[in-house]
Amino acid sequence: MSDRKTKTICFTNNKGGSGKSTSCANLGYELAKAGKKVLLIDGDMQLNLSLSFFDEEKVLEMAECEANLYYAIRAKKDLLDYVVSTPYENLDLIPSSTLMSQIEYELFTMIQREYVLKKCLKSIYESEKYDYVLIDAPPTLGTWVINILCTADYVIVPVEASPWGLFGLANMFDFLNGMEEMTEAQIMGVLITKVDERKNYYKQTREILDAYEDIYVFDTFIHVDSSIEWAQDNSVPVAVYKKSTRSTKEYCELAKEVMNYGSR
Question: Which of 23, 167, 224, 255 is the residue whose CA sits 20 to 30 A from 246?
Answer without folding.
Answer: 167
